């Protein structure tokens, strides 16, 4: 096995009663990689993250974390993992500082780390505030702080920016990139294709429990750029479509030299349109999370 | 078993309970009521320490049981327990941390009962030993209810019934022989009898049997709950 691999799954299949929720999931995620699992609600993202974090045992298949093959993740791996999951799991009556103090004691971390990590997520001024007085964005940043405090080697993020305003989402994106630069492997589930494109080195598109496409987000978009056109909007309001090839170069040059161009775009699809092409439905499809019925 | 983690859970619980009025009141209500009643009500031919023993029995049957069930159920409902268990805290470390906190705080309450009852020397030690045994069984029953319950609401509905049985049966049994026949099978009734006879305690086989049976049933409920729900 490649020792650079931090997360590896082989033929993971999961059934809940008679329903197949995941079907032969094979993933290989390298150290320092940000991997995005994209799919609509009900695709099986949360089920897969629960299997990877040892909360669920797959019906069949093998999960490896840090190169150790196990049917189910054992507890000693947990201290090297940070998690930001769907439910915050914060002690509402305790302050931000006390919430982190508990985990500092559990992990045997020096107390000084608490203030450092609170500053990092921008909660240093709210250290003495009780969690039940925090906004949703602040709570999510505190969960991030808790996940980062023990300097994990793998970070699992389940819809980390869901329901947050763009400014807070952006600050969390910066934190994720910072962790990646330190060599942390990040496993991210999202149905936000912009987030995935911005952050991820590789993404897997998950639909009805199956991985239907896998690769670098930009490469995926280029691969599905069937139209391969340029759309030019002129200052007079006219929209002109040109093939993205050498024969169009003269016309584009003419528009540019005459200063006629208002905007110019390629027809390269985004991840959402790639997903739609493959499945006939969008990433925001509002289906009930199949697996949630079972917990 | 990592004692640092047990201590971390213990300290967390200490801080959390100080801000949790619902649980905090469980610990102080009965010692306070007993203090007031014992010092303010004087009835002719009233048995020695009548109110202390009455409320100490209710304390055993109610406070450790309801607080353990409530704390466990809340941790499950709010997902904090899952986060702890996924942070390399073993279920046994968590239970020991929370259980030892409840045990200690209830023993502090028991000291108040002992002081109000003016127990001295060996009587003081016996009183606290009986209370310790009752608190332990009560914590186990509470842990069983807490692990089996999905949330605080379902824990409360079960706790109220169980708590009523263990705390009020010994009191009703004083006035009703029929109830007394049933009540004698509860640990709280047996401990109530011991408390009433402090200084002249005679240990009978059936008393030990009933206490052991209560403890085994409490353990079985807890193990069943733990196996089914794995705490998280």
Automatic annotation (TrEMBL), chain A:
Q: Which residues form the ABC transporter domain?
A: 7-233
Q: Which CDD domains match?
A: ABC_DR_subfamily_A
Signal peptide positions are: none
Record carries keyword Transport: yes
Coiled-coil features, chain-numbered ranges:
none
* GO MF annotation, one: ATP binding
Spell out the InterPro entries in the cross-references.
AAA+_ATPase, ABC_transporter-like_ATP-bd, ABC_transporter-like_CS, ABC_transporter_ATP-binding, P-loop_NTPase
For this UniProt record, the keywords arranged alphabetically read as follows: ATP-binding, Nucleotide-binding, Transport
Query: PANTHER family this protein is in?
Result: ABC TRANSPORTER ATP-BINDING PROTEIN, ABC TRANSPORTER, ATP-BINDING PROTEIN
Protein name, per record: ABC transporter ATP-binding protein
Q: What's the source species for this entry? A: Candidatus Galacturonatibacter soehngenii
UniProtKB/TrEMBL annotation, chain B:
Q: Name one GO molecular function term.
A: ABC-type transporter activity
Ranges for domain ABC-2 type transporter transmembrane? 30-223
Q: Which Pfam families does UniProt cross-reference here? A: ABC2_membrane_3
Keywords attached to this Swiss-Prot or TrEMBL record, sorted alphabetically, are: Membrane, Transmembrane, Transmembrane helix
Q: Where are the transmembrane segments?
A: 21-38, 50-73, 94-116, 122-143, 155-175, 201-226
What is this entry's stated membrane topology? Answer: Multi-pass membrane protein
Which compartment or compartments is the protein found in?
Membrane
Q: Does the keyword Transmembrane apply?
A: yes
GO cellular component terms, alphabetically, are: membrane
Taxonomic superkingdom: Bacteria
Instruction: Name it.
Output: ABC transporter permease
What lineage does the source organism belong to? Bacteria, Bacillati, Bacillota, Clostridia, Lachnospirales
């Amino acid at each position: 096995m490649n020792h650079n691999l931090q997360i590896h799954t082989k033929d993971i299949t999961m059934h809940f009663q008679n329903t197949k929720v995941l079907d032969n999931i094979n993933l290989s995620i390298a150290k320092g990689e940000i991997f995005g699992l994209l799919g609509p609600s009900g695709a099986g993202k949360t089920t897969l993250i629960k299997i990877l974090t040892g909360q669920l045992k797959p019906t069949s298949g093998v999960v490896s974390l840090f190169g150790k093959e196990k049917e189910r993740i054992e507890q000693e791996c947990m201290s090297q993992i940070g998690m930001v999951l769907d439910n915050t799991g914060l002690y509402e009556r305790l302050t931000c500082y006390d919430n982190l103090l508990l985990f500092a004691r559990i992990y045997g971390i020096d107390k000084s780390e608490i203030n450092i990590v609170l500053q990092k997520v921008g909660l240093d001024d709210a250290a003495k505030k009780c969690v039940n007085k925090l906004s949703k964005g602040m709570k999510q940043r505190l969960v991030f702080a808790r996940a980062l405090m023990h300097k994990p080697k793998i970070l699992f993020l389940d819809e980390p920016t869901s329901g947050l305003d763009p400014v807070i989402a952006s600050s969390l994106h910066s934190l994720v990139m910072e962790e990646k630069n330190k060599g942390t492997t990040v496993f991210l589930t999202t149905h936000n294709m912009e987030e995935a494109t911005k952050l991820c080195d590789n993404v897997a598109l998950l639909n009805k429990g199956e991985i239907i496409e896998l690769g670098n987000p930009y490469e995926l978009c280029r691969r599905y750029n069937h139209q391969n056109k340029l759309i030019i909007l002129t200052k007079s309001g006219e929209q002109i479509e040109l093939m993205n090839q050498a024969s169009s170069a003269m016309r584009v040059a003419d528009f540019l030299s005459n200063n006629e161009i208002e905007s110019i775009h390629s027809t390269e699809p985004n991840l959402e349109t790639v997903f739609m092409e493959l499945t006939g439905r969008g990433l925001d499809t509002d289906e009930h999370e199949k697996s949630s019925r079972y917990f | 078993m990592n004692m640092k983690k047990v201590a971390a859970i213990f300290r967390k619980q200490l801080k959390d309970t100080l801000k949790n009025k619902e649980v905090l009141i469980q610990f102080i209500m009965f010692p306070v009521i007993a203090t007031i009643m014992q010092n303010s009500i004087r009835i002719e031919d009233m048995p020695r320490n009548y109110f202390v023993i009455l409320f100490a029995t209710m304390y055993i049957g109610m406070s450790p049981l309801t607080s353990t069930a409530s704390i466990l159920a809340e941790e499950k409902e709010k997902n904090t327990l899952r986060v702890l268990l996924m942070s390399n805290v073993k279920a046994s470390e968590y239970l020991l941390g929370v259980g030892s906190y409840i045990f200690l705080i209830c023993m502090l309450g028991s000291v108040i009962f002992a002081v109000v009852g003016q127990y001295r020397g060996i009587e003081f030690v016996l009183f606290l030993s009986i209370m310790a045994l009752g608190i332990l069984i009560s914590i186990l029953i509470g842990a069983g209810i807490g692990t089996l319950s999905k949330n605080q609401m379902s824990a409360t509905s079960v706790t109220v019934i169980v708590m009523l049985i263990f705390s009020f049966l010994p009191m009703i049994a004083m006035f009703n022989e029929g109830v007394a026949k049933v009540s004698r099978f509860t640990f709280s009734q047996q401990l109530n009898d011991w408390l009433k006879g402090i200084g002249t305690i005679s240990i009978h086989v059936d008393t030990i049997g009933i206490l052991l049976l209560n403890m085994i049933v409490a353990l079985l409920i807890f193990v069943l709950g733990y196996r089914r729900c794995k705490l998280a």
